[in-house]
Design a protein that fits this description.
alpha/beta, Four Helix Bundle (Hemerythrin (Met), subunit A), Rossmann fold, four-stranded mixed β-sheet, 11 helices, 17% strand, binds 5-S-methyl-1-O-phosphono-5-thio-D-ribulose
């Protein structure tokens, strides 16, 4: 299946990204020529989804470095570190963001020592690395799809939450990548899409992606999921993840944990699809995953229209953590991990 959705790419010394806040009403692209525009785009969800923000940070760092004209190597390094620090403050939960920044730091260090003191050469190495990270992500997602598709049967009704599709990655998607790969194999799949309050990534983005590729999909509100499971309408659940601890506990969009608990109660397989860049094996359990809290306006209004009384108190955690006992399997590019997750995850990293 050709890639129909280009989430983010490097073109003419600019970072170009589809504006996910404008979707599904408008398909427009934001052209960032200043790295600070990329910083803002990550913060305000113009680009979102764990792997996609990792790619955006990498490209943003390359862009920021391009406009540096340092007098010394020391000055170059200080300015580079400052740009990296700005990206690391954008969003706290997705491991992929920090993974992307760490790769760019390693690339910078390697370029510094590997040739003549030529800033042009170092800048080009960083651009090449960012583009590589983007291309690798698409290839990794295709592998996740191939590894996961055998878990899907023709006739499945799959529930997904948030958007773990092409838009959340450099392309193809993780959870939606598995669905795409099963469809490419000729399997007949129907997807139930949780709208995903409060930012509606399901309604606005996942529904749009699936409709674009003619994959049968039905939109539901988040609070309908339990009833559909009870009615026997859902055979599997597949979601993405923002950070996975060494024991398999997985952070994902708020509402994922409720789905996992409901899935267990109804004996429905609950799958996570994620690249190795989402794993944080230095974190023992999900208890230590930092959870982003976002502005209460996301809960009290939508696109400028108030939906709650002025001044109401709001709590808006953007993610929750699903403990690993609720997870049937974690699908990655290196294979499918099943319980006990601690040893299975170690094996993934050895492969
Ligand atoms: O706040 P968002 O839209 O960045 O949250 C995204 C999610 O929770 C996705 O499910 C997750 O990043 C996995 S994407 C492959």
């Amino acid at each position: 299946m050709p890639i129909l959705i280009r989430t983010i790419f490097w073109e003419d010394n600019a970072v170009v990204m589809i504006d996910q806040n404008a979707l599904p009403l408008e398909e427009t692209y934001l052209v960032c020529r200043d790295y600070r525009e990329v910083v803002t785009a990550i913060k305000d969800l113009t680009i979102r989804g764990a792997p996609a923000i990792g790619v955006a940070a990498a490209m943003g760092i390359a862009l920021g470095t391009l406009h540096l004209f340092p007098a010394s190597q020391k000055e170059f390094k200080t300015a580079f570190d400052d740009i990296c620090a700005q990206f690391s403050r954008t969003r706290p939960t997705a491991r992929n963001l920090f993974w992307g920044i760490e790769r760019m730091k390693r690339c910078f260090e390697a370029a510094l020592i590997s040739g003549p003191d030529d800033t042009g050469r170092i800048k080009q190495s960083l651009i090449d690395e960012a583009v590589r990270i983007c291309e690798e992500d698409i290839a990794v997602n295709r592998k996740i799809g191939v590894n996961g598709r055998s878990l899907i049967q023709s006739g499945d009704n799959i529930l997904t939450h948030c958007n773990a599709g092409a838009l959340a990655t450099a392309g193809y998607g993780t959870a939606l990548g598995v669905i795409r790969a099963a469809v490419e194999e000729g399997k007949r799949i129907h997807v139930f899409v949780d709208e995903t309050r409060p930012v509606l990534q399901g309604a606005r983005l996942t529904a749009w992606e699936l409709m674009k590729e003619n994959i049968p999909a039905t939109l539901i509100t988040d609070n309908m999921a339990g009833f559909l499971m009870k009615q026997g309408k859902i055979s599997k659940i597949i979601v993405g993840s923002d950070r996975i601890a060494a024991n398999g506990d997985a952070a994902n969009k708020i509402g994922t944990y409720s789905l996992a608990v409901l899935a267990k109660a109804h004996q429905i397989p609950f799958y996570i699809a994620a690249p190795l860049s989402t794993f944080d094996v230095n974190i023992r359990t999900g208890e230590d995953i930092p959870i982003e809290e976002r502005n209460g306006d996301e809960v009290t209004s939508f696109r400028g229209i108030k939906t709650a009384p002025e001044g109401v108190l709001v709590y808006n955690p953007a993610f929750d953590v699903t403990p690993s006992p609720f997870i049937t399997a974690i699908i990655t590019e290196a294979g499918v991990a099943t319980p006990p997750f601690k040893t299975a995850i170690k094996e993934l990293f050895k492969a």
